[in-house]
Each structure stands twice: as C-alpha cells, then as structure tokens.
Amino acid sequence: MGTVSLELVLGVAAGVVLLGVLAVRVSVGLGLPSLLLYLGIGMLLGESALGFQFSDARLTETLGLAALVLILIEGGLTTRWSAVRPALGIGILLSTVSVVVSIGVAGTALHYLLGLDWRVALLWGAVLSSTDAAAVFSVLRGVAVPRRLAGTLELESGMNDAPVVIAVSVLASTEAIGWTTPLLVGYELVAGAVIGAALGFGGGWALRRAALPSTGLYPLAAMAVCVLAYAGGQWAHASGLLATYVCALVLGNVSLPHRGGVVSFAEGTGWLAQIGLFVLLGLYVSPPRLLDAVVPALIAAAVLLLAARPLSVMVAAVPFRMPWREQAFLSWAGLRGAVPIVLALIALVEGGPTYQPLVDVVFVLVVVLTLLQGTTLPWVASLLGVSSRTDTREVEVDAAPLDEVNAELLQVKVPGGSKLHGVYLRQLRLPTGATISLVVRDKAAFTPDGGTRLREGDQLLVVATRDVRESAERRIRAVDRGGALVRWREGDRPD
Fold first, then answer.
1. DSSP state for residue 254 in the 8-state scheme
2. Using CA atoms, how far apart are residues 278 and 39, in angstroms rounded to an integer?
3. How many CB atoms lie within 10 A of CB 407?
4. Is 333 exposed, middle or buried (0-12, 13-18, 19+ CB in 10 A)?
C-alpha cells in the first residue's frame, strides 16, 4: 500500500469542509437538516462510490467521542442560563429518569418484536435513548418556541449523553449487573458535574484576571478548560461528557472577557466537529449491509416514536403539570443524530462483532427519524400551538478588558424583538461609572445623548469601570427582557 501524501490529505479535508459549509446553505433552502447531507458526503467518499476504504470501528469511536466533546462545548457556551434555568428540573429528569424509562420500554418492545436476548434488547434501548446535541442545537434554534421548551430540550440533549454512555458500557460488557451498579452510575454523574462546575468557575475567574496579550488566546484558553474538564472527569472515573457540558455552561454564563469571540470560535469548532463526525460516520458505514437493517430500523423507530419517547417524557413531566401539547412537542423533538451511532460503535468495540448489525440499524434509523422529525418540527410546533409569535433573541453582550484604566468595554447588539427597541438612553439608568459612548446604526456611528432612542439592530459601545461592569450588564439584560419600566435592583442576577 502506497504512502498517502500530505497534500492529498489536506486537499481532501479542505474540500470536505467546504462542501460541509455549502451543505448548510443548501439544507436551509431545502428544509433538510444538514447532518443528512454530511452523511451523504461521507457515503459518496466511501467504498460504494469513490472507493475510500475505512472500517476501523475503534478509531471511529474515538474520533466520534472527541467530536462530541467539541459539540457539547459549543452547546454549553452558547446556552444562556436565563433560558434553561426555568427548565432545570424537567431537564434533569429527562436526562436521567426518562433515560431509564426509555431503555426499559424500548428494550422490552424490541425483545418481543425482534426476538433479541434481554440484555441485548436493553442495550439497543440504551443506544436509542439518547437525543443528539448537535441535531437539537442546529435544528431547534431555527424553530420559534418558548424559551422554556427550547431550554428543556437543550439541557436534555446536553446532559443525557453521560448516563447513556455509562448504560451502554455496562450493558455491552460481559460483567454481571449487581446492586452496586446504580451507586457507581450515581457517583460518575455527580462527580462529573462537580468537576465541570469547579473548572468552569475556576477557569472563568482565571480568564478574567489573566490579561492575555492577544484576544485570540481567550477562545483557545476557554476551549482548553472545557477539554480539561473532560480529561479530569475521565481520570477520576467520572462522566467526562457531563463535566464538559457543565464546565462550558458555567463558562458561557460568567463575566468572560471577549465572550463574543469565545462563542464565535466555539461555534466554528462545533460546526467543524459536526461536519467531520457525520462525514466520518457516512464513510464508515457499508451501504450493502444497510438493506438488511431497514426492517429492524423501521420497527425500532416506531417503538421510539409511539411508545418509548412519549412515555419517558410523560414520566418526567408529571411533577411539573406540563400541558399535553408541550409534552407532545417534547416527544416529537427528541431528535437523533450522530450520538446513537457513536454509542452503537462503543457497543461494537466493547462487545465484539456481534453488535455490527446494531450499528447498521441505528444508521438507518437516524436517517429515517431525521427526515421525519427534523423536517416537520416547525409544522408540529405550529399544529400544537407552542410556536412563539415572534422569533426573539436575547441581547448580545461582549466584553473586552481595558486594563490600563481598570475598566471594560461592552459591545451590545440589540436583536429583533428586544424590548430595548424604543427605549431612550436616559431610561436605561445605567449605574454610575457606566456610559454608552457610541451607537452604530445602519453602518453609521454617532455619539448618543439621553434623548437617543434605541432601535433593533443597533450596536452600542458601553464603557464601564470594573466594579460596575456586571451591574451595567444586568441592567441592560433586564431592560432587554422587560422594557424600560422593569423593576431592577442592584443585587439582581445578570441572567
């Protein structure tokens, strides 16, 4: 076998990334989730088309987990605590209790419908029980639903990977399941969350005081802290995935210098991870084997849509008295993507070649459910009456340190639907030590005064001394949500 040249590897990789970026634009125009086009690119490169041979399950699993770490970092850093805090309780139940219910329901149904051994059937149920962070973060944010519902799904998809990975590892092994297994699972989840929170708060504190010489170093440092959380979690025999997501969630909601740059960098690496992961999975799969997987995949998809997912959502929603319409939307919005395929690869690596059919079935199932759920989600939201009337976004605030004068510069962008629209600057009542020095409107900049009235699309430069910087951001966010007459106290939280 000849040596592959570096220029060929780099050229193919660059071409795949450019095709992936173009696929985002094409998918928007066609109304299809872009992940399907990424899978198609991988299959086009594979053995049945252009002839690239790739069948290393262990390497695919390793790269898949690495990509999942980057996707979870992007999801955590871009999630606002104000959006997910009201959904914290049901989000935790969906990512824990509902996972157990889904595994039990799906495993029991597949045992009788497909004749699988009980342990194998429960393993199939575990692989299929996890929603996909990449699919949820990319598809859901294009659907106008209340923040509480969106926050619930984002929390679930960010946190449920951890318990499901543990369940798959336990069921795929040959070791007996004893009474200590639930205790071990509990330790891994709790320890992972604690490690992630500790590194998130510690990393945020360090970055605020680091005064790095280049703004480009802040995104690298923030990403490194989150990756360190994964490594620390795994080293402590805890859940590295949960540590990663919690760390990123904390970092994304503290007063982080150059937060806009950090988030943009995380979004870029998240997209790169998604493109690479789905193309890799499309390259790995063998199309001739997929024909035998179609019938089992359709049966498993029906079990998920009609039984496992609705019942698991219902159990989680009982303590919160959630309306049935919202429960129905949460059931339909349980999107599958690359995560179940990676989980099936974990089972294949740990349990042996007998689980190769599971990988093929999950691949077909992901394609079918993505086509069905991803394309109809806006219509289902409208049918159930849970669509928001306006697609509002939270105000964007980026901060840059001005170390020599002990101050910070906040860059604020007024989004569509914000209640900052129409507010006079004097109504903002920013704390003493903070002032709006510049407004950029329609590509023209001017110095405002108290009579300047804000509009959607305005960009503001706010200079604040370091001791009032957080108070200024709290006030801006409060007005963004509640308008100029919103009640506000000095001690209110910024989110």
1. S
2. 5
3. 17
4. buried
Place of tokens 């070649």: 353
Write out the two tokens for 6.
């570096």
pLDDT tens readout for residues 106-126: 999 999 999 999 989 999 999
- The distance between the two most distant Cα atoms of the chain, rounded to a whole number of Å, is 74
Distance (Å, rounded) from C-alpha 93 to C-alpha 95?
A: 5
pLDDT computed for residue 450 by the predictor? 82
Report how far residue 148's alpha carbon sits from residue 168's, in angstroms, rounded to the nearest whole number: 30
**Can you spell out the DSSP letters for 64-110?**
HHHHHHHHHHHHHHT--HHHHGGGHHHHHHHHTHHHHHHHHHHHHHH
Number of H helices and number of E strands within the chain? 22, 5
pLDDT tens for 347-378 read 888 887 888 888 889 989 988 988 888 778 88
- Token pair belonging to 90: 């049901």
- Contact residues for 42 (Cβ-Cβ < 8 A; gap 6+): 278, 279, 280, 281, 282, 283, 284, 285
The conformation of residue 252, written as its DSSP 8-state character, comes to: T
Q: What is the pTM of this model?
A: 0.76
Rg of the chain's alpha carbons, rounded to an integer?
24
